Each structure stands twice: as C-alpha cells, then as structure tokens.
Amino acid sequence: MPARSDPKDQERSVRTLRVGEAVRHALSEILQRGEVHDEVLASHPISVTEVRMSPDLRHATAFVKPLLGRDEESVLKALRTNTAFLQSEVARRVNGKYAAKLKFIADESFDEGSHIDKLLRAPGVARDLGEG
User: DSSP character for 71?
Assistant: First the structure.
C-alpha cells in the first residue's frame, strides 16, 4: 500500500517555498536599491536566484550570482560581511515569527547549464544525435 502524504507536510512545503520567495524578493530589493553601504556590493549587480528555507523557517540559504560571474568571491565575502544588516532588513520586510539566519552560496546552476550546452554542441555528440 503506498504511503500517504501528510497534508501538514505539503502545507509546510508550500509555506517554506512561499517564505523563501518572500526572502528572495526582500534581498533582491535591498541589493538593487543599494541599501547596503559596501563598495563591492554597490559596484556589482547581484541576482538572488533562489532562497531555500529550513523546515522551521529559521535558516535561509540564498543562492546568488553577480552579473556575468565577475568577482564572485569578493561579492560573497561582502555579502557575508554584511549578513547581520541583511538579516535585520529581511526580517523587518518579511514579518516572520523569527528572523531567519542567512547563508550566502554562489549559484552554480548557470555554469552547469553552460557546461551541458557546450557538451551537447560538441562535434561527436552532434554527429551521434544527427544519426538518430
């Protein structure tokens, strides 16, 4: 007999997605408006591609990518240096029960997509795909 999914699990999942998206929007807005007084962050447009929340909504992992991937390490360092300010601003805007602890990670999905695209365009693969 297949296992039943608990409606509370699904509700929690939807809630974590909704809160994660709210945190992503708040972070994007803060960074876009230049509200963090940091030279590195001011000089690099940054995309917040995704925010994953822990089930208890106390931890948020933000996946970020500077425009064109320029100076990724220095951007991550600047974000981590300004984490306390960003956490307080996000908490103020999202109005959750807890102020989520932010963690910033470089989003590698663009690099992976480019790598797969490059592999698919390789002459050997293109030849094999053309024969099918």
Answer: T
User: Which secondary structure element, helix H or strand E, spans residue 51, and what is its range?
Assistant: strand 46-53
CB 64 within 8 A of CB 106: yes
Distances 73 to 92, 105, 124 between C-alpha atoms, Å: 28, 10, 35
Structure tokens at 121: 């365009």
Between the CA of residue 84 and those of 76, 92, 108, 114, what are the distances in Å? 14, 12, 24, 34
Q: For 70-103, what is each residue's pLDDT tens digit?
A: 789 999 999 999 999 999 999 999 987 778 999 9
Q: pTM to 2 decimals?
A: 0.74
Q: Which two tokens stand for residue 15?
A: 């809630």
